[in-house]
Amino acid sequence: MAGALSEVLGEVLVSADGEEVSVSALSARGVSLVGLYFGCSLSGPCAQLGASLAAFYGRFRGEAAAAGAQRLEIVFVSAEQEQQQWQDAVRTMPWLALPFNEKHRKLKLWNKYRVSNIPSLIFIDASTGKVVCRNGLLVIRDDPEGLEFPWGPKPFSEVVAGPLLRNNGQTLDSSALEGSHVGVYFSAHWCPPCRSLTRVLVESYRKIKEAGQKFEILFVSADRSEDSFKQYFSEMPWVAVPYTDEARRSRLNRLYGIQGIPTLIVLDSQGEVITRQGRVEVLNDIECREFPWHPKPVLELTDSNAVQLNEGPCLVLFVDSEDDGESEAAKQLIQPIAEKIIAKYKAKEEEAPLLFFVAGEDDMTDSLRDYTNLPEAAPLLTILDMSARAKYVMDVEEITPEIVEAFVSDFLADKLKPEPI
């Protein structure tokens, strides 16, 4: 266990009283699950979470004392910028924390688990380091007594099981989804980007069905009232989890670790995830020619997928789009390296640590260059880490596969020196 956890957390953690605790010591305590709590004491939502999380953690500590083993440990991964603030926050916490000076490791954890907002609680298996549940905040709300411990992922068919609705009031059993591709659509009427996506998605749904594809969309509402749900659902030609079945809606949010809406998860006919970026795919493929949108190793940077730059480190190769075929040639250059990285991490059941893009010349790309203060050269090979406000630049006359592979390898090995954005 210590090896897998040490790879994630390092060798030492800190307790509330400032004592160092060896990561390897967690094994002796019987810890089988670790919750990574990403937060900041200056955040109102984090402060609100504190009491309920402490009570939740305390129940497990009480059970541990009775049973002679501690099943759960929580580790605070802080966003504090000042050491005194960090110390004050950690003193109030009954769990452990990543040391303040481990800033680089903290950043790697935020990127590794694609944490986009706080508070966030992600449970990982202590023996393997693999993600068990991406949305631990819902676990605390839905299972405060820990009866479903260790909250591992279940098959989609099991989580969704039960009656579904059509907007005319008819019901059907969730087994009707079997054998179809399914888009699990997390959305709400109060959210303007959701309403905009829904209008596009209705047309995409129609085109896919008219093409004879077996496809269904399942609406999982985040509306604030049943009336809002009914009004919004009346615009949708697909099926929904009943608004009154809050437990099932929450389980689906937990299953896919939903951190924001709109989110469209596309599943294959076996219920396995094809892509978590259904929103981007729908907007980029209006004619639905590439349905069911299997992920591409290298993407062309566009207005609709630029949001992914904020999800973690991204390799971006800037090219001169006025040169015919330059973008396609750049994709072909990067693709074998991207495929190799993706396959390596998929074998470990982890997300790749980099996304790969080719960027041409347009207003959006010009804005990105200006914001990140990049040279005007083309081609220009970069890795942009927006959350760390860091960039890595390879400005050479010719970009070769060997240069790209060495650049990526050095980045993953922490051999590159970042420049500030």
Automatic annotation (TrEMBL):
Superkingdom assignment: Eukaryota
Pfam families per the UniProt record, alphabetical: Thioredoxin_6 (PF13848), Thioredoxin_8 (PF13905)
Catalytic activity, EC: 1.8.1.8
Any GO molecular function: thioredoxin-disulfide reductase (NADPH) activity
Organism the protein comes from: Coturnix japonica (Japanese quail)
Lineage: Eukaryota, Metazoa, Chordata, Craniata, Vertebrata
N-terminal signal peptide: none
UniProt xrefs under Gene3D superfamilies: Glutaredoxin (3.40.30.10)
GO CC terms of this entry: cytosol; nucleus
Keyword line: Cytoplasm, Developmental protein, Differentiation, NAD, Nucleus, Oxidoreductase, Wnt signaling pathway
Name of the protein this chain belongs to: Nucleoredoxin
Residue ranges constituting the Thioredoxin domain according to the UniProt record: 150-307
Transmembrane annotation, as ranges: none
EC supergroup of this enzyme: oxidoreductase
Localization of this protein: Cytoplasm, Cytosol; Nucleus
Gene Ontology biological process: cell differentiation; circulatory system development; negative regulation of protein ubiquitination; negative regulation of Wnt signaling pathway; Wnt signaling pathway
Family indicated by similarity: Belongs to the nucleoredoxin family.
Catalyzed reactions per annotation: [protein]-dithiol + NAD(+) = [protein]-disulfide + NADH + H(+); [protein]-dithiol + NADP(+) = [protein]-disulfide + NADPH + H(+)
